[in-house]
From TrEMBL:
<comment type="similarity">
    <text>Belongs to the peptidase U62 family.</text>
</comment>
<feature type="domain" description="Metalloprotease TldD/E N-terminal">
    <location>
        <begin position="22"/>
        <end position="83"/>
    </location>
</feature>
<protein>
    <submittedName>
        <fullName>TldD protein</fullName>
    </submittedName>
</protein>
<feature type="domain" description="Metalloprotease TldD/E central">
    <location>
        <begin position="111"/>
        <end position="219"/>
    </location>
</feature>
<keyword id="KW-0645">Protease</keyword>
<dbReference type="InterPro" id="IPR025502">
    <property type="entry name" value="TldD"/>
</dbReference>
<dbReference type="InterPro" id="IPR002510">
    <property type="entry name" value="Metalloprtase-TldD/E_N"/>
</dbReference>
<feature type="domain" description="Metalloprotease TldD/E C-terminal">
    <location>
        <begin position="226"/>
        <end position="458"/>
    </location>
</feature>
<dbReference type="InterPro" id="IPR045569">
    <property type="entry name" value="Metalloprtase-TldD/E_C"/>
</dbReference>
<dbReference type="InterPro" id="IPR035068">
    <property type="entry name" value="TldD/PmbA_N"/>
</dbReference>
<dbReference type="Pfam" id="PF19289">
    <property type="entry name" value="PmbA_TldD_3rd"/>
</dbReference>
<keyword id="KW-0482">Metalloprotease</keyword>
<keyword id="KW-0378">Hydrolase</keyword>
<dbReference type="InterPro" id="IPR045570">
    <property type="entry name" value="Metalloprtase-TldD/E_cen_dom"/>
</dbReference>
<dbReference type="Pfam" id="PF01523">
    <property type="entry name" value="PmbA_TldD_1st"/>
</dbReference>
<dbReference type="InterPro" id="IPR036059">
    <property type="entry name" value="TldD/PmbA_sf"/>
</dbReference>
<dbReference type="InterPro" id="IPR051463">
    <property type="entry name" value="Peptidase_U62_metallo"/>
</dbReference>
Length: 462
């Protein structure tokens, strides 16, 4: 992507006016994105993004700059300007780079860029038609198809020089059901760090029908009650509650500055003893997996919580300096336009020993959250608020009526301590996660969980 001698020159220039560490990040990305609404293509974009980012540290200070030009003069001038900006003592040194070849844990069988766009559109039509024909009350269906291949080169003044390729593919269906002026939505998707072989493994028609089923079910639902109730959270995308309410608070991005409720709690009991959680970027072909992170460090399986005890954080290079700790292969960024920072890869609550049926039977009156929707969290306080896309009442140990408008409200520390049962039915899901280094693919998941009590917010029927 860039000649090694040029990279050495640029890194030397990046330390020529100041700084004690320099890094160069090169990205060459091929994208395909197609949107279909009501069976017709609304947009179809294919393109290439290319750029170079240079980052320099001086102690705990950093400077980041980027360009979409990669000629020698542009890169050397940019590196020297950044070096002056970060301050410190000038260094005249020749950077000796050693090429590293990471083991590829995520092989791609069918390159998506080799598949005709017409084949991708045919798959979109299958999902669209399945959702549209599910029920006459479905009045809008949006199908989105995405694939990209991101090639990166990362080198730094410590001598690392490594290249990697990441391919991801995703398919989602959004639906709207309407009746008597009322509307409800449904959303289902599937993505992986795979090529077009993903479509040998998933049923796009089922995705469409499931998205339609959720919208229609909620259309007929009664308003959710409000109050404090036991809640059973379903597996798979139910893991978003741990991702948001707890995962972000375990990233060094917030921990290093003391802006997290989990700061300074290593070795302390922060959760029920039935809770075990990891962040693992090594799982083959998972949505958030990579061979190396965006600082060139091999990804790994990081234990976050073990039997309720806080065991570790997710840490990037700059925050490792601030915290005087080791890096964990957790540095991520959306593109060359962003400096990396500590982010989640695939963040999971691990399997327990409880049966889903036993969780439901143990609840006299509560809520079953089948699909969670969007939410927000304040990492400094751990306070969260999540919409429940599909919810049901639990009455006398039985799942009964669907309810709409339910929200789960609480704090990460509180919910971790109130997890009473962890199921044995783990499944993974995926989503896009936003933070200071942009929007990135993040895997999540869990088995079903029973929380002894969560504040549930409802809403009145319109």
């Amino acid at each position: 992507m860039l000649d090694r001698k040029l990279v050495q020159e640029v890194l030397a220039a990046a330390l020529s006016k100041g700084g004690d560490f320099a890094e160069i990040y090169v990205e060459d990305r091929l994208n395909t994105s197609i949107d279909m609404m009501k069976g017709k293509i609304e947009s179809s974009l294919s393109g290439r993004d290319y750029g170079v980012g240079i980052r320099i540290f001086n102690g705990l200070n950093s400077v980041y700059t980027y360009t979409n030009q990669s000629d020698r003069l542009t890169l050397l001038k940019m590196a020297q300007n950044a070096s002056m900006a970060v301050g410190g003592m000038p260094q005249n040194l020749a950077v000796d780079l050693t090429i590293a070849s990471p083991h590829d844990k995520h092989p791609i069988r069918i390159r998506p860029e080799q598949i005709p766009k017409s084949d991708k559109i045919n798959l979109m039509r299958l999902g669209s038609e399945a959702a549209t024909h599910y029920d006459s009350r479905i009045n809008q269906v949006v199908v989105r198809y995405l694939d990209y291949t991101q090639n990166v080169l990362i080198a730094n003044s410590e001598g690392r020089f490594v290249e990697d390729s990441r391919t991801r593919t995703r398919y989602t269906v959004s639906t709207v059901a309407g009746k008597n002026g009322k509307m409800q939505t449904g959303f289902i998707g599937k993505g992986a760090g795979k090529g077009f072989e993903l479509y040998d493994e998933i049923d796009v028609a089922h995705i469409g029908r499931e998205a339609a089923r959720v919208a229609c079910t909620m259309l007929d639902a009664k308003p959710s009650p409000s109050g404090k109730f036991p809640v059973v959270i379903e597996n798979k995308f139910g893991g978003v509650i741990f991702h948001e309410a707890c995962g972000h608070g375990l990233e060094a991005t917030s921990v290093a500055k003391g802006n997290s409720v989990f700061a300074g709690k290593l070795g302390e009991k922060i959760a029920s003893e039935v809770v075990n959680a990891v962040d693992d970027g090594t799982i083959p072909n998972e949505w958030g997996s990579m061979n190396i992170d965006d600082e060139g460090t091999p990804t790994k399986r990081n234990v976050l919580i073990e039997n309720g005890i806080l065991k570790g954080y997710m840490v990037d290079k700059l925050n490792a300096r601030r915290m005087n700790t080791d890096i964990t292969g957790s540095a991520r960024r959306q593109s060359y336009k962003y400096a990396p920072t500590s982010r989640m890869t695939n963040t999971y609550i691990l399997n327990g020993h409880s049966k889903f049926e036993d969780m439901i039977q143990s609840v006299e009156k509560g809520i079953y959250a089948k699909y969670l929707g969007g939410g927000s969290v304040n990492t400094a306080t751990g306070e969260f608020n999540f919409a429940v896309q599909e919810a049901y009442l639990i009455e006398n140990g039985t799942i009964t009526s669907p309810v709409k408008g339910a929200t789960l409200i609480g704090t990460g520390l509180d919910i971790l301590k109130k997890i009473e049962m962890v199921g044995d039915n783990f499944e993974s899901g995926e989503g896009m996660c936003g933070s200071v280094s942009g929007s990135i693919p993040a895997g999540l998941g869990q088995p079903a969980l029973k929380v002894s009590e969560i504040t549930v917010g409802g809403r009145e029927e319109n």
